[in-house]
Specification:
Blueprint lengths: L5 E4 L6 E3 L2 H11 L3 H16 L5 H11 L6 H18 E3 L3 H10 L3 E6 L5 H7 L2 H4 L2 E4 H4 L6 H11 L6 E5 L2 H9 L3 E5 L13 E4 L2 H6 L4
Parallel strand pairs: 1-4, 1-6, 4-5, 6-7, 7-8
Antiparallel strand pairs: 2-3
Helix pairs in contact: 1-4, 2-3, 3-4
Length: about 220
């Protein structure tokens, strides 16, 4: 088996925990749109936000138009600012993240954060210091491809300059792990809470912490 040279690491619920409730309530409240109506429209535009077809400003403008509300440029800018502010205020790293990323770097392992996300995530990764410990931030909204599509995994491999066989993905989502395995990348599914009967897919290792992931790289 080839030596592992790189680790592709998911963001949300893998290294970052976030209470999205204030964000889900705060932005619609600022827009003056009922929560249920906002969430219904947001669900429709969410895939386009994740793969970069829409910016937050464009999506918010589209949601307000669908809800019959007028959106000035100033209000849209304030909604984008509030969205970013609430994410920064309510996201934090799990305790094992900085030690894990630091030890990988010290061992010469290349690191890419590979996340399905919208444009507010880069600032959060910078604010938490993750960008300083990762070689690359591969964000779906920026690379125009989202997990489990093979393109985002190949993009990350290309940025790191490694082959699929030399990399492992760490992700909390079973289907994203399966997507990496499909392109030849080993996968570790991290389950931080209750297992709830979860069993890893074929070719996927189940881990409960990032310390267990580090063990995959050997001594």
């Amino acid at each position: 088996m080839p030596r592992l040279e790189a680790c592709l690491v998911d963001a949300y619920d893998t290294i970052v925990t976030c209470d999205f409730t204030p964000l889900r309530h705060g932005v619609p409240a600022l827009a003056g749109i009922p929560l249920a109506a906002w969430e219904q429209e947001y669900t429709l535009v969410s895939p386009m936000l994740n793969d970069g077809r829409l910016s937050k400003a464009q999506a918010f403008r589209q949601i307000m138009a669908s809800c019959g509300a007028q959106a000035t440029d100033d209000l849209i800018a304030e909604l984008v600012r509030r969205d970013q502010e609430l994410l920064l205020a309510n996201a934090r790293l799990y305790d094992d993240v900085i030690p894990f990323l630091t030890r990988l770097r010290d061992r010469g392992i290349k690191i890419a954060i590979v996340s399905n996300c919208t444009e507010n995530t880069r600032a959060m990764l910078v604010a938490t210091g993750v960008d300083q410990l990762a070689d690359e931030l591969v964000l779906s909204c920026e690379v125009r491809s989202a997990k489990p599509a093979p393109e985002i995994f190949r993009h990350a491999l290309g940025r790191l300059g490694v082959s699929p066989e030399a990399a492992v993905l760490v992700d909390d989502q079973a289907r994203f792990c399966a997507g990496s395995v499909a392109v030849g990348i080993r996968a570790a599914q991290i389950v931080r809470g209750e297992l709830d009967g979860q069993r890893p897919a074929e070719g996927v290792t189940l881990v409960r912490s990032l310390v267990e992931v580090e063990a995959l790289f050997g001594e």
